[in-house]
Amino acid sequence: MTAKEIRQAFLSFFESKQHHVVLSAPIVVKNDPTLMFTNAGMNQFKDLFLGEATIKYTRVADTQRCLRVSGKHNDLEEVGIDTYHHTMFEMLGNWSFGNYFKKEAIAWSWELLTEIYKIPKEKLYVTYFEGDEKEGLEKDQEAYDFWKQYVDESHILPGNKKDNFWEMGDTGPCGPCSEIHVDCRTDEEKALIDGATLVNADHPQVIEIWNNVFMQFNRLKDGSLQSLPAKHVDTGMGFERLVRVLQEKTSNYDTDVFQPMIQFIAEKSGIKYGTDEKTDIAMRVMADHIRAISFVIADGQLPSNNKAGYVIRRILRRAVRYAYTFLNFKEPFLNQLVPLLAEQFKGVFDELISQQDFVQKVVLEEEVSFLRTLSTGIQRFEKYQATDGMVEGAFAFELSDTFGFPIDLTELMAREKGWSVDLVGYEQALKKQKDDSRAATAIDTGDWIVVNTEDQSEFVGYDDLEIETEILKYRKVKAKGKEQYQIVLRQTPFYAESGGQVGDTGRLEDHSRQFWVDITDTKKENGLTVHFTDILPDNLEGKFWAVVDEDKRILTEDNHSATHLLHAALKQVLGKHVNQKGSLVNADYLRFDFSHFAKVTDEELAQIEVIVNQKIRQNIKLKEQRNVPYQDAIESGVTALFGEKYGDFVRMITFDDHFSKELCGGTHVKATGQIGSFKIVSESAVAAGVRRIEAITADKAEQFFLDQRKELGQLKALLNGSKDLSASVQALLDENSKLKKEIEKSTIERVNTLKHEIVHHVRGINGINLIAEHIDLQSAEAIKNLAFSLKDMVDNLFLVFTTEIDGKPGITVMLSDHLVKKGLNASNIVRELGKEIQGGGGGQPFYATAGGKNPAGLKAVLEKAESFIPSH
User: Fold this and answer.
1) What is the mean pLDDT of the chain?
2) Exposed site from 171, 480, 751, 847, fewest CB < 10 Å?
3) Could you give the C-alpha distances from 749 to 735, 759, 777, 806, in angstroms and in order?
4) 434: in domain
5) Does 729 reside within a domain?
6) Integer Cα distance of 220 and 326 in angstroms
7) Cα 268 to chain centroid, rounded
């Protein structure tokens, strides 16, 4: 079976068991502060496990893109080294939300593996949770008994909490699990060692392929376990491992999932795969990493220097380093794998082929930048002098942190020089950085305290900005030393930050409306609307009025709706390739990032502004459609954003059926006329292939035009009421240019006069010709020209000038080349002299300058100059 056939067989099998097949969630996580990336198939269903969202389908199946490179689930350093770890991988999963449990999950997993995939039963081992006395958890006898119906007892193995109790993190849904392992060794190897002893022993040929997690607990902050509202099944089967087993390979990388890319790399590098372990690892790293890089970029996360952007940049640089060091790719190459990858996932994850050109461009730009950095780092290493043949740990860490060098590359270059690396010092520096980073981002989140029982919270803010409601639950959070509270309401009109639109603020008033607490922000967490306050109401159990700040909401809506009009106008003016890559919408302005490979010209910006303002003046009524079947919406030509997770039913926002039609959960104006006017204030580059427009609307746009009018009036007044401002300004510029030329001519004449005067002031000291003078020139360039002229006229010159330009003291030091060779350094000298004027400076060994704050010290500078002349 091919990889595509294996994937489809899984989904078809569970469809036959009445499972609803859902799309993969984006690999980049939004609205969950505990995660940057989807690292398990269950992430998108976390709110269902916790009972915080309505269950639409009690049985679900999918293939989920996952990424594990940070936090608890961190496989990065094993990737490429072994045969079965990956950064991005597919997790095939079947799910039950309060429907079936252990009996069906176990029966179906065995049926699929042995009857559909035809894996020999004797190759399979299963595990069950043996219990944990500390946790007060008993042995999972139920799972054991179900397995006995299908599997010989010698192949049913107990597992400890580490291996057979699945937890997503320190807190959250969890439960006992039952793994399925396959023994891929040869018959000869099996005869020597019993496979049961190798399960969960990190043997490369005895591997876990499927995990049935029986979700029944929620781990609280204090470590205790709380029963979930209902019991669920969460299964995950590693697609790449499954393909390896079914295609009878000894490595995931030998399957048709990776071999097309590996063979392409081998062909382009001129190195055959399978001939050398180091080059094999490099090819595996590249083939693996390009998948993670490409899908994260396609889902809307660009490489950057912080958070999720830094993680993906780190993965990309790791791939480039391996290519550079072991495959001799000195020019960008990784990006050439993107088209191959996009074609491979066509029909499975089409978001990649839809954005192939964009993703390839971003990867290319990152490669170019990093190869430049890598070259700089190598030059820095070549200049480094090891003490007693040991490269300091701090320097090795600097190479890693600043220039992206892996420690093994530093060790390799050190060995070539006969040096070693202080690995202990390196690890200490690395640990310090991680500890500092962890401390800076640490958030201490308490458990939810239930006030009123209710299945879930409801958002009513599309229709109401003020409602009567109750508090369902609250918790305390602490970040960067500040304590706040998070509150969940039974019904809320507050829009939670999402899709670029900021969260609402407002007030939570008690029923008498005499006392209130301010809502400072509203965010989403796993589908839950969470309100932030600095204090709690005195009585949490009463009725409350939830009141949104209406003025702020209206201004935010103006900018959000204008963003939709802008998006449509950009497509109309620049082309259909334009897609949203990020946005920020608040009460003050809008920021819109979009895919485009060239600067937007002034003419194009003007055209875009005209189109948007025309649509505003047309006062187009909002057409809002809720609960539209996703497929119907797509077929209607709606714009869907890459990297967003859409359910089976979506909300469509339309301003003119033939102009702007988008899927959007945000709040909007009732008609475009409310926006008032639209003004672009800036256009810039964000990253390779991504541009950014910032704009203002409504009262901010009005104020902008008023300010412009005021400034224009002031300019007219300065020009004596000129009716033709352009002509008047041009006349001033011409006159200014003429005066500058006259001043330059006068200055040149003054420099020529001065140099002939000053040359007679030379004092010979110990064979050195000293000039120490205060110069009355008001141009730094003229002073520099004078110094260089005197250098040409006077041998063995040691020159110190002091100056005062617009009340600011300055120092110039010039040395002849002969004095520089003798060890004098103008940059060092000027820094010392600069202390006299409370300043500093620097420059080159033969020419340097300094500035300061204290003109009174200039006399001391000239007096001190002679002290720098060597005595012999």
Assistant:
1) 91
2) 480
3) 21, 16, 12, 21
4) yes
5) no
6) 47
7) 31
What mean pLDDT is predicted for residues 461-478?
94
Looking at the fold, whether 426 and 377 belong to one and the same domain comes out as no
Element (H, E) at 5: helix 3-15
Q: In the predicted model, what is the mean pLDDT of residues 530-552?
A: 93
**How far is 495 from 552, CA to CA, in rounded Å?**
12
CATH number reported for the structural domain that contains residue 494 in this entry? 2.40.30.130
Round to whole Å and give the CA distance between 280 and 408: 16
Q: How confident is the model at residue 72 (pLDDT cuts 50, 70, 90)?
A: very low
Burial level of 338, CB count in 10 A (0-12/13-18/19+)? buried
Residue 664 among known ligand-binding residues: yes
Q: How confident is the model at residue 325 (pLDDT cuts 50, 70, 90)?
A: confident
**Annotated binding residue 756:** no
Non-local (6+) Cβ contacts of 314 within 8 A are: 69
pLDDT band at 77 (very low <50, low <70, confident <90, very high): low
> Which of the listed residues 254, 269, 303 is the one where a domain comes to its end?
254
Give 3-state DSSP helix, strand, coil % of the chain, rounded to 5: 40, 25, 30
pLDDT tens-digit series, residues 501-512: 999 999 999 988
HEC string for 133-197: CCCCECCCHHHHHHHCCCCCHHHEEEECHHHHEEECCCCEEEEEEEEEEEECCCHHHHHHCCHHH
User: What number of other Cβ atoms are within 10 A of residue 304's Cβ?
Assistant: 14
Q: Do 15 and 51 sit in the same domain of this protein?
A: yes
List b or e across 559-578, with b for residues whose CB sees 16 or more CB atoms inside 10 angstroms. bbbbbbbbbbbbbebbeeeb
Phi first, then psi, for residue 532 (nearest 5°) are: -100, 135
Compute the chain's Rg from CA coordinates.
Answer: 35
Looking up residue 227, the CATH number of its domain turns out to be 3.30.930.10
In the DSSP assignment, the letter for residue 116 is: I
Element (H, E) at 113: none
pLDDT in tens, 196-219: 999 999 898 999 999 999 999 888
State the residue for tokens 């640089």. 317
Within 8 A by CB and 6+ apart from 828, the residues are: none
**Number of separate domains in the chain:** 6
Q: What is the DSSP letter of 115?
A: I
DSSP output for 277-343? HHHHHHHHHHHHHHHHHHHHHHTT----SSHHHHHHHHHHHHHHHHHHHHS---S--GGGGHHHHHH
Domain around 176: 3-254
If DSSP codes are grouped into helix, strand and coil, which group holds residue 616?
helix
Burial class (CB in 10 A: 0-12, 13-18, 19+), 143: buried
Tell me, what CATH number does 863's domain have? 3.10.310.40
Do both 435 and 465 map to the same domain?
no
Q: Is 560 annotated as ligand-binding? A: yes
State yes or no: pLDDT of 428 exceeds 60: yes
Residue 33, classified by CB atoms within 10 Å of its CB into exposed (0-12), middle (13-18) or buried (19+), is: middle
- Dihedral, CA of residue 256, residue 262, residue 268 and residue 269, to nearest 10: -160
Domain check: are 354 and 407 in the same one? no
N-terminal to C-terminal alpha carbon distance within the chain: 87
In a shared domain, residues 399 and 375: no
Residues 492/458, Cβ–Cβ less than 8 Å: yes
Residue 727 domain flag: no
**Cβ atoms of 851 and 805 closer than 8 Å:** no
Give the closest residue to 833 by CA, choosing from 861, 867, 854, 863: 861
Task: Please check whether residue 761 is in contact with residue 732, taking contact to mean a CB–CB distance below 8 angstroms.
Answer: no
Q: What are phi and psi of 264, to 5 degrees?
A: -65, -45
Task: Specify if 210 maps to a domain.
Answer: yes
Q: What is the CATH number of the domain that holds 689?
A: 3.30.980.10
Residues in Cβ contact with 631 at an 8 Å cutoff, skipping those fewer than 6 apart = none
577 labeled binding residue: no
Quote the pTM value: 0.76
